[in-house]
Each structure stands twice: as C-alpha cells, then as structure tokens.
Automatic annotation (TrEMBL):
CDD domains: CYCLIN_AtCycD-like_rpt1, CYCLIN_AtCycD-like_rpt2. It comes from the Eukaryota. PROSITE patterns: CYCLINS (PS00292). Keywords: Cell cycle, Cell division, Cyclin. One of its GO terms (biological process) is cell division. InterPro entries: Cyclin (IPR039361), Cyclin-like_dom (IPR013763), Cyclin-like_sf (IPR036915), Cyclin_N (IPR006671), Cyclins_cyclin-box (IPR048258). Residues 96-184 form the Cyclin-like domain. This is Cyclin-like domain-containing protein. Belongs to the cyclin family. Cyclin D subfamily.
Length: 315
C-alpha cells in the first residue's frame, strides 16, 4: 500500500507511527482508561429487535440479491485467511474484542453483524502495516464505532468504547482518522446487507407469510451470531446464511416440539446457539461453528464440504 494511503493512520509529527511513542500513550491515557471502567451504562436499543429488521417485498428482495455482493469482502479473502497470507489470529482478536464491547454496552445484534462486515471488508481490501500489532486493535475500535453510529440510538463517546482491558488505548482523534480510512476504503458503503437484513423475508417464507414472532427472530439471529466468530461463513452470501439459519431455527423448534410436546423455550434457544448442528440443506456445513458462551471460542466442524443452498427458498 502506498504512502498516501497510510497517511490517515499517521500523526502529523511522524510518518511511521500513529503515536510518537506507544509507551507514553499508555501513560497519557490513564484517565481515559479509568473513565472507561466507570462507565457501564446500558446503551442498548429501546426499540424491539423485530421492529428494526426490514420488511422486504419480493421486488426489494430481488434488488438486494443483485446488490449484496457489493457488501461482501473480496473473493480471495477467505482463501488468504486459510493459507495464512492474512493473519487469522489478528482477525480473531479483533472479533473477540468487538464481542466483548458489544456485550459490555448491550448493543444490538445488528451492530455486531455490521461491525464484523466492516472488519472483513476492510481487511480484504487494505493491508495493515506488518509488525505493528496495535493497528488491528485500532481497526476493531473504528469498525465498532462506525457500526454503533449507524445502528444504535444511544452512542457512547468513541474513546469510551475501549473496554475489556485492550492491549492499547487510542485517543479520539486517532480513532477518527482510522474511521476515515475505513470509510474511504469501503467507499462509504456503510449501510451493508448482513444476514440480519434478510431474516424477516425468510421468516415469512417459512411461516406462510405470517408476521414472525420475536422469539423466532431472536432464535434465528442467535444462530447467525454463533457462526460469525469463525471464517467459513465468509464462503456464502448474506442471503444464503440468513436462509439457512432460519431453516435451522424452524427445524430445531419443530424437533423440540415433537420431543416435548410443547413450544420451544429459552433453554432450547441456548442449546441451539451452543450446539454444532447439521443444517437442513448443508448450506453452512462448511461453517458449522459455535462459540462457548463463557470463553468466546470457536469450534469448527472437521471434513466439512461446501454445498449450494437449495434454490427453492430463494426462488
């Protein structure tokens, strides 16, 4: 990447670091770190999740299907992660921190999905300076900051997003520079389509056009979140992931209903999110992933193969 493209990351006083001295940064920002520890407000949305999802007509869905590729990482991104051309551990660290901050502030699920979308798209387009491990943390903060500005009603100060004892703390002006770099790299296409965007459409398809219940929406989104810490989901479009997770949700609820003779409960949803299910159409068999709620780690299925989505559900 040329020198000009790196300028947004650099201070006016130096051309090789975002800060004159990372050691002095830690000392100078002790007040910021202390402030972050005290602030623990509930910044979550006051609007019901089901009211935030778009209600798509057939026409809107067709248009979005044609445009969703614009909001995906470059085609070679997954391959580069798998072969080690891009550091998978750096991505994992960024995703794990975003999740911690997401939980800390009680942000909505849509913000988390959007943060990961920005992160993956940026990493597929822009090569961060090698040997400067702080850059991935700065990127994670910037992606989360942009996502919550897009999706949340109550947004904390940018510097206060840095929770969970991160390795580095950044000044507000530095985070803003990184935000500008992300915005320009993604060509200001920030209203991205994520799997959550298509949830309502597939819910109605599976539910005979009836209005989906909050419980069904919540369970489906839990299943979406359960795969996003891994990378195999990147093999598929957002609409494919949404269709598969909705079908898995209906399958799990039907199975539990047959076994117990009652409707699915909150315990069933927790089991669904922490299990490693076999998907009905094998769409995400290659991304059969789940994270342990206590550790935030990711499990992946072995010998998984990519299969195409049953075209019936999106035809």
């Amino acid at each position: 990447m040329g020198e000009n493209s790196n300028d947004l990351l650099l201070c006016t006083e130096t051309k090789n670091l975002c800060f004159d001295d990372l050691d002095s940064l830690a000392n100078d920002d002790q007040q910021i770190q202390g402030k972050s520890k005290v602030l623990n407000f509930d910044y979550g949305r006051s609007v019901a999740l089901i009211d935030l999802l778009p209600c798509l007509s057939e026409e809107s869905f067709s248009v979005m299907m044609e445009r969703e590729k614009v909001f995906l990482p470059k085609d070679d991104y997954l391959k580069r992660l798998r072969i080690g051309d891009l550091d998978l551990n750096h991505r994992r660290e960024a995703v794990n921190w975003i999740w911690k901050a997401h939980v800390h502030y009680g942000f909505g699920e849509l913000s988390f999905c959007l943060s990961i979308n920005y992160l993956d798209r940026f990493l597929s387009l822009y090569e961060l300076p090698r040997g400067k491990i702080w850059t991935i943390q700065l990127l994670a903060v910037a992606c989360l900051s942009l996502a919550v500005k897009m999706e949340e009603i109550n947004v904390p100060l940018t510097v206060d997003l840095q929770v969970g004892e991160p390795k580095f703390l950044f000044e507000g002006k530095t985070i803003q520079r990184m935000e500008l770099l992300v915005l320009s790299t993604l060509r200001w296409r920030m209203q991205a389509y994520t799997p959550c965007t298509f949830i309502d459409y597939f819910m109605r398809k599976m539910n005979l056009d009836e209005f989906p219940s909050m419980r069904l929406v919540s369970r489906s989104i839990q299943l979406i979140l359960s795969i996003m810490k891994g990378i195999d989901f990147l093999e598929f479009r957002s609409s494919e992931i949404a269709a598969d997770r909705v079908m898995k949700c209906f399958e799990l609820i039907q199975d539990l209903t047959l076994v117990s003779g009652t409707s699915a409960t909150a315990a069933a949803a927790a089991a669904a999110a922490t299990s490693v299910p076999q998907t009905p159409n094998g769409v995400l068999e290659a991304a059969c992933l789940s994270y342990k709620s206590g550790e935030g780690t990711v499990l992946s299925c072995q010998n998984a193969k990519r299969r195409k989505l049953d075209t019936n559900i999106i035809s």
